[in-house]
């Protein structure tokens, strides 16, 4: 069985909830063949949002932090019910343990394990349902918001990860006072490399490590959460290094260890930005390790992937990633989805659509913006290609129905069910048998109603944090589930560090 943390990444390829992150990547990264990652000096790309616009910096001068919370859903449950803290805990969705606390991990339980296997390994495992993501989403937003208190340059990656660009903070610190000669890194240094206090690049990262430690301490005191952090000169390396020591620890990778960090990855699929399909295509070229890719002639890679994607792949293999930390901004769509073994009758489809719309309407009402478009996505069962067989149809939402959505209640549900069923019939011929394994409904083209009233972005901001004045809010947050970088189809979407800004509210699994 292949289990995969499903996202809307495939769907978002042509959708308006796709982000510019991937495009930034392609715009900004040019191949630096023959240049060691640590000495590469291509300029930083322009940030999509001008918020906190970073000055042009050599890549080696950037300081990027990556935060990943420990056993996120399990932590949230343990905060809600402290009695669970001393027990091995598994969070269950369908027949899968989506995550488990570290005590359960000591008993051999792992993430994405079947419940039956987990129970065999650890009979005393306590199971809590993780189907309702509402609370996880709320805490997730609070985490990003706390981080935004330190820097406006915070980018969410799924529910439990955030990047933060602290380059300016490091600059400010360096201007304020000279670094003491006995300055050290807070936490681990990747490879146990020794810190050279005379090397500016080292000092910058060491300062970054102290900022990371401060942020992690704040996460703990203010939200009761622990997590890991990675400190590096770019997002790719920060993400790759952050889980080196788990849980509740942090690791800095100094530039000289870039090559080791890259080649220590257990395969190309581990490199953020190299998704399932890309890895398959690389495999057909005989490339399975990062080193294989590093050594592969660029000209040949270009033949297979085209110039720009080949260059990006090549750069990734070398640990080069100039993509900026792009403040996430308000979600551009809200969606909900569910996956299942089989839905093959119209009644079941109707029930599922009603269920999805109920929770979605509630969230849309809280958001306050009026959606102008509704999209239905289905996945048909396919024995050969079950990962990528999604199709969608979308249509405008009539204004009177849109208004009902934001005025609350479930008045809009019946007409939306009708619309959604019409979209369904555009894809599925009811006279023939069908077998669906996923249904997703997405509201997009979200429009604020006025500058100050409900429905405005400022309303959305204040909803996130009523205790915080709206003018202090930096940005509101993408509503995402996935925490992994996801696959993308080269040619369809840009390759790069693909954030899964899927807006889904459910984790779903393929193949179960
Ligand atoms: N998640 C999920 N389905 C997946 C992967 C993750 O529902 N296939 C959810 C549950 C996790 C959360 O996302 O708690 C964050 O994912 P991580 O991979 O970061 O895993 P954890 O935070 O749970 O554990 P770790 O301590 O290893 O980071
Ligand atoms: Mg985590
Ligand atoms: Mg994570």
Automatic annotation (TrEMBL):
What's the short name of a Pfam family annotated to this entry? Answer: IMS_C
Cite the GO molecular-function annotations of the record. damaged DNA binding; DNA-directed DNA polymerase activity
The reply to whether Repeat figures as a keyword in the UniProt entry is: no
| GO-annotated biological processes | DNA repair; translesion synthesis
Keywords from UniProt, A to Z, are:
DNA synthesis
- The residues covered by the UmuC domain are 64-275
> Hey, which family's this protein in?
Belongs to the DNA polymerase type-Y family.
What name does UniProt use for this protein?
UmuC domain-containing protein
Q: Which organism is it from?
A: Megalops atlanticus (Tarpon)
């Amino acid at each position: 069985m292949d289990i995969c943390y499903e996202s809307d990444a495939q769907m978002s390829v042509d959708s308006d909830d796709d982000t510019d992150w991937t495009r930034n990547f392609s715009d900004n990264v040019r191949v630096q063949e023959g240049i060691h990652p640590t000495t590469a000096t291509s300029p930083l790309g322009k940030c999509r949002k001008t918020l906190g616009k970073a000055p042009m910096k050599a890549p080696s001068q950037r300081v990027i932090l990556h935060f990943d919370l420990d056993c996120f859903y399990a932590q949230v449950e343990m905060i809600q019910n402290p009695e669970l803290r001393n027990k091995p805990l598994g969070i269950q969705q369908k027949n899968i343990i989506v995550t488990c606390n570290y005590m359960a991990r000591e008993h051999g339980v792992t993430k994405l394990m079947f419940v039956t296997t987990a129970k065999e390994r650890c009979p005393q495992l306590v199971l809590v349902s993780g189907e309702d993501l509402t609370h996880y989403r709320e805490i997730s937003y609070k985490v990003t918001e706390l981080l935004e208190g330190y820097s406006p340059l915070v980018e969410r990656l799924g529910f439990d990860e955030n990047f933060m660009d602290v380059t300016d903070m490091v600059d400010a610190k360096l201007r304020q006072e000279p670094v003491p000669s006995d300055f050290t890194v807070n936490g681990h240094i990747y490879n146990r490399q020794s810190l050279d206090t005379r090397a500016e690049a080292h000092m910058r990262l060491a300062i970054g490590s102290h900022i990371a430690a401060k942020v992690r301490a704040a996460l703990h005191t203010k939200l009761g959460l622990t997590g890991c952090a990675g400190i590096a000169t770019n997002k790719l390396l920060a993400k790759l290094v952050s889980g080196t020591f788990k849980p509740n620890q942090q690791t800095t990778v100094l530039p000289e260890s870039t090559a080791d960090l890259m080649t220590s990855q257990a395969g190309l699929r581990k490199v953020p930005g190299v998704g399932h399909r890309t890895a398959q295509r690389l495999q057909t070229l005989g490339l399975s390790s990062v080193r294989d890719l590093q050594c592969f002639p660029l000209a040949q890679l270009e033949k297979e992937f085209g110039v720009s994607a080949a260059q990006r792949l090549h750069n990734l293999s070398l640990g080069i990633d100039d993509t900026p930390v792009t403040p996430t901004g308000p979600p551009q769509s809200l969606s909900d989805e569910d996956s299942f073994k089989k839905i093959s009758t119209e009644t079941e489809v109707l029930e599922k659509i009603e269920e999805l719309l109920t929770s979605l309407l509630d969230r849309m009402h809280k958001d306050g913006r009026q959606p102008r478009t509704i999209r239905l996505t289905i996945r048909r069962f396919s024995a050969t290609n079950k990962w990528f067989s999604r199709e969608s149809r979308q249509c405008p939402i009539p204004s009177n129905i849109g208004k009902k959505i934001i005025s609350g209640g479930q008045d809009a549900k019946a007409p939306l069910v009708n619309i959604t069923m019409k979209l369904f019939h555009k894809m599925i011929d009811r006279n023939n048998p069908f077998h669906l394994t996923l249904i997703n409904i997405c509201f997009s083209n979200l429009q604020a109603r006025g500058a100050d009233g409900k429905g405005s972005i400022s309303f959305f901001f204040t909803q996130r944090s009523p205790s915080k004045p709206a003018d202090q809010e930096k940005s509101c947050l993408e509503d995402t589930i996935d925490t992994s970088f996801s696959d993308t189809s080269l040619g369809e979407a840009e390759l790069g560090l693909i954030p899964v800004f899927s807006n889904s509210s459910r984790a779903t699994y393929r193949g179960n």
